[in-house]
Amino acid sequence: MKITTVTKVILFAWLLFDLLLISCNNTVDESSPEGKKLAITYCGSCHALTEPALLDKNTWSQDILPLMGKKLGIDYIYEMPLQGAGKPLISLEDFKKIADWYYKNAPDTMPAQGRLPISEFTNMFAVKTMALGEGQFPSASYIKIDPGNHWIYAANGFDSSVSIYNDQLMLLAKNPVQGTLIDMDFDDSLQNPGTRKGVLTLIGIMNPNDLKTGSVYSFSVSEKGVFSSSNKLIDSLPRPVQTISGDLDMNNIPDYLVCGFGNTTGGFFWVRPDSKIEQQDLRAFPGAVKAYTNDFNNDGRPDIIVLMAQAQEGIYLFINKGNGQFDGQEVLSFPAIYGSSYFELDDFNNDGFKDLLYTCGDNADYSGNVLKNYHGLYIFLNDGKNHFSQKYFFPINGCYKAMARDFDKDGDLDIAAISYFPDTKKQPQESFVYLEQVAGFQFTPYTIKEFNEGKWLTMDSGDADGDGDDDIVLGSLVPPYEAQQQKWKKEAKQKAAFLLLENRHYQ
Questions:
Q1: Cα–Cα distance for residue pair 328/320, rounded to 1 Å
Q2: CB hemisphere CA count around 289 (13 angstroms)
Q3: Angle at 355 between CA 354 and CA 360, to 5 degrees
């Protein structure tokens, strides 16, 4: 799970509201925007420049900039350094220029999404609800379809367990684990029935922190769904959210890639159990959230692609050069305010090259009071040389995950998407969106009547009932904060632990 903090908008502007009111009375010469140049200098050293237009004046001045001023050791209420903070990292005069540029060029209010509200309900799916028990909270920290066994794995983030259900939502087994399970990686394909084994990732403390309390365990599941985890493979990890195994150095010994999301620190790690180098930093920054291995240059060696979703948000490709060496390159960069949340590899135009389906919408930071018209899902096409260009965008406030499948079996990819931070006042139905592709990159949006039964953090797709088409599961989680739990208890709107959306295509 990913819950962002102040590092989502790290180090690009640092002022208080009082300063902005003072400085905005000065006129900026837009033909020579010195404030922008200073912002590029100070912000660009940490991440891509965040343009003023990405937030409104009020959010810049009251929510983001005051906290950033303190980051640089300056209290602008009294125009003096913070006591004990050391020497400020920028002069007062330069701060005012940066503030003036941001304030004058930010919109008064954020633009609208530019689309009509989603009002149509799809008849593609029959919805089954796994209801919560008395006194329970939605807590699906991980959910997964096992098509070979017709199972659903549902991890509970509050009681540190993972339950296994059949496609009729009958509980087969409830198994304790050593912490909050956030990801499972299976050794073999799930298309055939049988026992399962692999590695699982435990996040440690779920709330934002820099403690290294995460770990990775091996696990096995019997044919009856009895789950066991035994060997601790890796520990002392910074809030890991994914672990995948693979033989990256091609020595017939499994290696592990770990996305250590962390908070202000973290990393994307390559762990080789056979090597003297037990843990190698592929990218020593926080925010690693999702990774895949794939041979992108067709040289027979597994390459790596990863989404970084904190500060330096972007998608990074690591080309395997052999002998344990990788050539890292940034293939897409996103502003630090975007809230990158997920991506997957798909071939949308059937040219044999992996394209990217990307979502942004994590709004759990200090700009979370405003809806952002750039939140949503994007399709980036691969030109065959691993250069990616935007082909499609569908705005969804707070979009958290999207998965492309041919749900209606007409030969092209449709998309299912969830939002953890929808517009609850004007269009809460965008919490689940089904985009049916009706022609080349033309999609018709739908939702389901049960859109408001949960707060959807997790989602998976696969053939749960064995009828030949892809179903969907949606997992609901209330943040593990007492205030959020009390709010949920008072409103009592989220009633489902998870939903199973059975595809009706072959019915």
A1: 9
A2: 27
A3: 135
DSSP state of 85: S
In single-letter form, the type of residue at position 81 comes to P
pLDDT tens-digit series, residues 421-471? 999 999 999 999 999 999 999 999 999 999 999 999 999 999 999 999 999
pTM of the predicted protein model: 0.90
Identify whether the C-beta of residue 199 lies closer than 8 Å to the C-beta of residue 243: yes
Rounded CA separation 124/119 (Å) = 15
* Largest interatomic CA distance in the chain: 72
List Cα–Cα distances, 419 to 92, 203, 280, 306, in angstroms. Answer: 40, 22, 34, 21
Is there a contact between 396 and 418 (Cβ–Cβ < 8 Å)?
A: no
CA-based nearest residue to 162, from 147, 146, 142: 142
Instruction: Convert the pLDDT of each residue in 139-150 to its tens digit.
Output: 999 999 999 999
Helix/strand/coil (H/E/C) assignment for every residue in 268-316:
EEEECCCCCCCEEEEECCCCEEEEEEECCCCCCCCEEEEEECCCCCEEE
End-to-end alpha carbon distance in the chain: 35
Q: Nearest 5°: CA angle at 361, between 359 and 363?
A: 160
Residues 6 or more apart whose CB falls under 8 angstroms from that of 16 comprise 65, 66, 69, 75, 76, 77
Single out the residue of 468, 476, 465, 477 nearest to residue 501, CA to CA: 465
Cα angle at 425 between 419 and 431, to 5 degrees? 15
Report, in angstroms and rounded to the nearest whole number, the Rg of the chain calculated over CA atoms.
23
Q: Is the pLDDT of residue 115 over 50?
A: yes
Nearest-10 crossing angle of helices 34-43, 92-105: 110
Contacts of 482 (CB under 8 A, 6+ apart): none
In Å, how far are 155, 195, 242, 477 from 220, measured between CA atoms? 15, 7, 18, 25
Closest CA to 281 of 267, 299, 261, 264: 267
Q: Please provide the size of the chain in residues.
A: 507
Q: How far apart are CA 507 and CA 492, in angstroms?
A: 34
